[in-house]
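Q: Structure tokens for this one, please.
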Amino acid sequence: MLITDSLRTYSRSYPEKIALVDEEQCITYQELDRQIDGFARYLSSLGPMENKACLFMKNRIEFLTYFLGAARAGWIAVPLDPKWSKQELNQVMVSVQPKVLVVDKEWVDKLPDLPQSTQIVFSQNVPVEETCQPSHSVADTTLFYMGFTSGTTGVPKGFVRSHRSWVKSFEGSAAEFGFTSEDVVCSPGALVHSTFLYAAVHALHIGATVILLEKFTPSKCIAAITQWKVSVLYMVPTMFEAINLELKDPRKQLEGNDIRAILSAGAKWSPESKRRVAQWFPQGDLYEFYGASELSFVAVIDLEGNKKKPDSVGRPFYRVEVSIRDEQGQDVPIGVVGKLFVRSDYLFAGYYDNEAETQQVLVADGWATVHDMARQDHEGYIYLVGREKNMILYGGLNVYPEEVEKVIKLLPNVEDVAVLGKPDKYWGEKIVAAILLKPNATIPKQVIQNHCRKHLAPYKCPREIEFVKELPYTTSGKVARKQIFELLFGSEVKS
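A: Here is the predicted structure, written as tokens:
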């Protein structure tokens, strides 16, 4: 089965049902399927399967039309992030060598020099081929999507997925969340990010209605929830915080809403934020899931699980096997920290044109790891400790910066923090906290030290604290640790 197959069925079963809504228009399942078909035929007239079609577009209906059209044609759709610099775009274009680039006219000036073989098509007037029939059969193992992670070098690193991996993920979502064709799903984030893209495509796969925002703002999001009677909401924690900060009384503005499920991913969701959101959406089930671009779903936790085990990322997702191993590759006892491995039908196919790094993730017997360190309790709940590559070795003891960061973020005046290992001749690495305070806030360093000693073992507490005016982030919103190393320590960068 392909990710677009069910759309044909819905175009016949309920042709006039609204499939997609953006800020300017809406489209029925019948019209959506017709447009997908037209673009698929156009691409098929240009070349064989697994050619690449890059999409450099704003969040709107046409983005999904062209994405799904490429998938139906057996091509690989490659969304490009508008936040990338020209240099980053150039690196991606040189690597991918797309056959076609679909671009919004107003974004043409952002483009670097393109490969000679790339054909530019403006998104506002993409050719539609009515007669050409694909000369091939697209299998479920065919690659259809290339997304990007922020590689350790800062260069966007492409990962690719097959139709089967997402169709199987759709089955897992059905088992865990129970969404139906009656749902109205709001995916308010950028479709270049796989969480929001998956949310939209999964909703179409089950025949639901999808609401898109060109750009997330709290007021636009709340307006969409109330106007379209949204029942399922995909968000990341920073979006909930933005709503809380911008709107004086979100609960009043959301009174009588139809939300029955809220899904959050991308970062650990704070208990305080969850409590607020539960008040805004009293009928809504809250789900938080942990995963990775390479692994898809790994674990999920609901509101009750969060109450019992607030530090956990949840139990293994539907049909996901988990193994936590020591350095010799043996399973560790319950409660002991080790490297987290998963096995499921949801895994990616690999990094594009990078077999060496693919082999670092896809290991023997169908298992995969992104080198997260974790432990598991006797009920099967997983607790993340940190990323292996971020680990600090202080006097022979392992310190995971994510654990220290989580403690420091509990302080009300702290906006964000990055904990790093500074090279030290005696200790090996010394723990340093780079702290970004909230606007106009102050906090004595001694207060931070005392707070850390209260919650952490002494060897995990920062030896130095640096207040910074800003923290650099990767395009996927993660703290750019390598850049912070360079800013704080200059040439003494940890490799």
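A few notes: Residues 391-489 form a domain with the GMP Synthetase; Chain A, domain 3 fold (CATH 3.30.300.30). The first helix runs from residue 5 to 13.
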